[in-house]
Amino acid sequence: MAASRIAVASVSLTHFRPLSSASMASVSPSLSSRLVPQPPDLIKWVRREGGFVHQSLKIAQDGDTGLGLLASDHIPKGSELIVLPHNLPLRFDSPEAGDTEEADSVLVNLARQVPEELWSMKLGLKLLKERAKVGSFWWPYIGNLPEVFSVPIFFPGDDIKNLQYAPLLHQVNKRCRFLLDFEKEVKRTLDSVKPEDHPFGGQTVDASSLGWAMAAVSSRAFRLYGKNLTVGTTNSVPMMLPLIDMCNHSFNSNARIVQEQDAGSMKLKVKVVAETEIEGNVPLTLNYGCLDNDLFLLDYGFVIASNQYDHIELKYDEALLEAASTVAGISSENFSSPSPWQKLVLTKLSLHGEAALLKVCIGGPEIIDGRLLAALRVLLSVDEEIVQKHDLDVLKSLSAEAPLGVANEIATLRTIIALCVIALGHFPTKIMEDEALLKKCERESSKLAIQFRIQKKSVIIDVMSNLTRRVKLLQSKAVSQG
Ligand SMILES: C[S@@+](CC[C@H](N)C(=O)[O-])C[C@H]1O[C@@H](n2cnc3c(N)ncnc32)[C@H](O)[C@@H]1O
């Protein structure tokens, strides 16, 4: 029977954080530590397997982002940097020699029990299987994967609480609970599998190794076209792209991924192309997507300062709005008892009635959730006729200039500012305290949790400044118009 690498790695799993929603030790060893201490040369492996790697690329430490790909020399715009032939990406349905159909069907059955939103666990099962298999085609790649990941499922319980933000706490707890339940499910399934059909070479797979695999996939997989590039098909097959996944993230990336279909075999190649000129000693970066910090932290284990896509979630709640209007010194009974025509607009905005979706956002490119803005404009208006004259899209737009009049707009924006003050007050600490704590803190997971909550509070403060500027402008306009 083939020896298993997980057997070896299970010794090192004691270095991993004990996986529970309650605890995880500090994130050391560092993100640069690989699964094997001296892993095979990834660039040589890609070239040996028929791929192409630009001669001016090297793998090196990239600041505090772990390892990265660096240009050692000037690279012109448009250059091909990496080309992976179709067999190098690791996907759930990668064809492999030497696996029994039974072993594959065990994996497929396990994958069926993973909810769609946790797709990274499905591909993670495949990754674990290859990690367990001696002689796996992908071992040179897998040996180069990080030994630990800084995603919050591995945070100690204290640091999960330190995030101070309920929507993310909810997601982290959901993932931790899933992993603990899935560990039991995997064990139950594997207990009845014949040794030759065991997908992990007879090894026990626990929540910790499942979490490692899920984090490896969520932080490194890309969704691309599966079989062909025909018009109308979507690019939604998750795959791990050896070497390409050494590129770190930037919203202003200097490289991008393209797929190309071979005319004869119809097989898909994955390429990285220089989107700009790249100077020597500059890291190669890809844009992982226009994501908020919740997703960056949950899936990738880092937080972006002043992330223009970051926002906070609030629940549209009449009592909260009433409290906000009181704080703003605007009294209106319409929040708790809107008139029938106002209710009709709220229903159209999906903020009233059985099908209501009460989650609204503050921050991000829109600054104020259009539905929340329209609702407040309408609730603070007494003039049904003016409201009816406007298209709902105009009422939802912050760039529409005071559609229901200057006084209405000032009252609306001041109510939202007060809503921000209340939201800020729900955080147990202030930014200044967080910054002082950050200076003292040594544990990587604590630092990440504090950085995350500082960014959330900054989103709120930025929105407040933006709206205050708008209110001042409206007030000065109102004065000048007499
Ligand atoms: C696709 S991998 C990139 C290669 C990775 N740095 C490594 O050492 O293997 C994604 C991971 O790199 C790190 N990373 C990428 N971009 C980053 C950024 N802009 N800031 C901080 N960490 C980043 C995070 O740990 C993330 O989970």
From TrEMBL:
InterPro entries, per the entry: Rubisco_LSMT_subst-bd, Rubisco_LSMT_subst-bd_sf, SET_dom, SET_dom_sf, SETD3_SETD6_MTase
Gene3D superfamilies named in the record: Rubisco LSMT, substrate-binding domain, set domain protein methyltransferase, domain 1
A biological process from GO: methylation
Keywords: Methyltransferase, S-adenosyl-L-methionine, Transferase
Domain SET: 55-289
One of the Pfam families matching this protein, by short name: SET
Any one GO molecular-function label of the UniProt entry: protein-lysine N-methyltransferase activity
PANTHER family: F21J9.27, UNCHARACTERIZED PUTATIVE METHYLTRANSFERASE
Name listed for the protein in its UniProt record: Histone-lysine N-methyltransferase setd3
Source organism per UniProt: Cucurbita maxima (Pumpkin)
